[in-house]
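Progress narrative, Year 2. Work on Low-specificity L-threonine aldolase from Pseudomyxococcus hansupus advanced from sequence curation to structure prediction during this period.
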Amino acid sequence: MKRIDFRSDTVTQPTAAMRRAIADAEVGDDVYGEDPTVLRLEARVAELLGLEAAVFVPSGTQANQLAIGAHCRPGDEVLTEAGSHILHYEGGAVPALWGVQPQPLPGQRGLLTPEAVSAAVREDNIHNPRTRLLSLENTHNRGGGAVWPVERFQAVVEAARKAGLGVHLDGARLFNASVALGVPVSAWASRTDTTAVCFSKGLGAPVGSALVGRVDLIREARRLRKRLGGGMRQAGILAAAALYALENHVSRLADDHANARRLAAGLAELPGVTVDTASVETNMVFAEFPQAAHEVVALLERHGVLTNPAGAPRTLRLVTHLDVSARDIDEALSRIRRAVA
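Result:
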């Protein structure tokens, strides 16, 4: 029985064409700045995002942490939405690595308001940490794959600018947002000081992210990458996969979004299962089941459907991606229907 894996879009396998690109990659020593494929990737992603420079890194977590380290100093504070990736899924790195204090702000499906940002900025007082950075996330993972409307994003960034804050965007799934709204990734990224993008989620590369931003911040990020052990040598074999993904796997994200809507509609028809189908904007579906989430995960796994709990006691997250077809969606719904009957 074929396993249908909805745990994350990180589980994708490189396609045959991507593997050929990896095998044919021209390489050099990236720590010396001599890998031509890495250099092409960094130039291309900076161009797409409308920013000055980029640095290729192993993971999205490292990209986010390099940004925080480049923007902030010990004793500073970063504002971020309460469900953000940097708070929940990066091992406590913000205070552990940089001595920086995060201030979680309540949002709606991961999105903030200008008023919330302005109110959170601390007064310049020796008793307070210095509010230095605003970190946003698009799409927002715990917000169900929610997409920032461009106008709202701009308004929140303007509020941060008025307070003298730097702005970082965790854009691990920024290309999903771009395809969902039909606007370029630069519509968000060009308004920031730094933006992180991931190649190993919906884009289907096996590994790698980029931190993109102002030249001075990227120069500092390279230094911090070395400190954290993120300097890679003949990394062109990885960058080649990311370049292939940028050239061939962006527009097809629309298929993942359509499959997510198909999955959500089917799950919503099952007795006892609750899905807000209107909230499915990209490639994530959050479904509430009658039983405890861990019990449903185990039950579905016995039927060859892999999922993850979503944090709430009875809610699962299901993520569509390159390796899940429309036919797989229908087969998964059939198996889930039998499992929960």
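Residues 73 and 98 are 7 Å apart (CA to CA). Residues 253-268 form the longest helix (16 residues).
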